[in-house]
Amino acid sequence: MAAPYAGAGAEGCNRETGPVLSESSTGDVKRPQFGTRFLTDPRQVFQHNAWDNVEWTEEQEAAAKKKVLENNQPLPPEKQEEYDTRANEYWNDFYTIHENRFFKDRHWLFTEFPELAPQRDLNHECHPEVSCTDDNEQDSLDPQQSGEIPTLSHEDADFPGFSATYRILEVGCGVGNTVFPILKTNNDPGLFVYCCDFSSTAVELVKTNPEYDTGRCFAFVHDLSDVEANYPIPDGTLDVIVLIFVLSALHPNKMQESISRLVRLLKPGGVLLLRDYGRYDMAQLRFKKGRCLSDNFYVRGDGTRVYFFTQDELHEIFSDAGLEKVQNLVDRRLQVNRGKQLTMYRVWIQCKYRKALVQLPEMQS
Fold it and tell me: Which of 51, 91, 324, 335 fits as disulfide partner to 39, beta carbons 3.0 to 4.6 Å?
């Protein structure tokens, strides 16, 4: 279901991208972490393909708000219901058309989310921009160091990846642009990766990929918004859950329950990683009239939907699900088309939230 692009109603599509790559003097590719390339001289804007942490002027912010308000007339309820009930059909059509040609593999994830990398050092180091929880300096994100790993019963022993020592689940895996880089890069023999998507077409494309290894990976169809549907994984068994441009595809009314159900799968100390669309991203500002479903929630021309978050909204969702904040930052990126001399302002939100090592009684239900 993960399908980040500039949105229907816009001319053409823009792929979601990660941190820009630079080359060292030896020719080796270095992958800088978020927030390392700053535009200090506007005259140099076309010297690179992208700039980090770009501050908006008050005029830009006001113009973005005005643009959103102009296109804020919701579609009739019956039309909104159609997009909701046919969501599966629209996503299957998307992957039938694009197959595995639309997105590039997200190798940048290992820089932004070292929890996914081999020989992981999960001791959290705070970004200057990030307000961290008080215990981040002494606690690791690796629940195996805490001695709090749940004991699986004999009845639980019949699920894929039972013998694994480190389990990752990607929700909304699409055609595997996150899963396959993890499998190729992370050589941890105890690793097992689960991946699911709303679209059966996408999951089938993952399973038919030559790199799909049933000994290290299990792909399955699942509707994140269906909180009554069972996962093929027992509660309390996952180390990491990954949501890359996925939560935004759900109806806003279904987000909280969906995350609360998902969080039950995490071990104590397990972490949820998210990257998604932020408020006033270029994709939101490009929507034409007649595409709004509700505040900051839109339908693209192909019938798929997208929501644009604020940091506070995501913090409330994750906190209400019983998670503790490790990271919640806005990635304001200025992307540049040097050939056409165009500038494009992207706004993404990146989050890491952790399940407490000791769950309060009201959070355990």
Answer: 51
Question: Going edge to edge, which strands form the sheet with 266-277?
Answer: 50-51, 323-337, 342-355, 266-277, 238-244, 166-171, 191-197, 217-221
User: How far is CA 181 from each of CA 186, 211, 341, 345, 351, rounded to the nearest angstrom?
Assistant: 8, 10, 32, 27, 20
- Give the span between the Cα atoms of 175 and 97, in whole angstroms: 12
For 40, the token pair is 């200090």
Please list the alpha-helical segments (H only) found in the chain.
58-70, 77-85, 87-98, 109-112, 179-185, 200-207, 252-263, 282-285, 311-320
Query: Around Cβ 272, how many Cβ atoms within 10 Å?
Result: 25
Tell me the torsion sign for CA atoms 124, 125, 129, 135: positive
Burial class (CB in 10 A: 0-12, 13-18, 19+), 294: middle
> How far is Cα of residue 319 from the mean position of the Cα atoms in its chain?
17
Q: Is 214 helix (H, G, I), strand (E, B) or coil?
A: coil
Amino acid code (one letter) for 189: P
Terminal Cα-to-Cα distance of the chain (whole angstroms) = 28
Q: Residue 205 burial by CB count (10 A; 0-12/13-18/19+): exposed, middle or buried?
A: buried
Tokens 């021309």, residue located: 301
Contact between 306 and 297 under an 8 Å Cβ cutoff? The reply is yes
Alpha carbon distance 107, 178 (integer Å): 8
Residues 203 and 221 sit within 8 Å (Cβ to Cβ): yes
Question: How many whole angstroms separate alpha carbon 118 and alpha carbon 153?
Answer: 28
Query: How many other β-carbons are positioned within 10 Å of the β-carbon of residue 91?
Result: 26
Q: Could you tell me where the DSSP H helices lie in 277-335?
A: 282-285, 311-320
Which residue's entry shows tokens 């706004």? 347
Q: What is the pLDDT of residues 274-324, one digit of tens each?
A: 999 999 998 999 898 889 999 999 998 888 899 999 999 999 999 999 999
Please name the amino acid found at residue 231: Y
Q: State how far the alpha carbon of 22 is from the alpha carbons of 8, 38, 336, in Å.
A: 31, 14, 15
**pLDDT tens profile 229-266:** 999 999 999 999 999 999 999 999 999 999 999 999 99
How far apart CA 32 and CA 275 sit, in angstroms, is 17
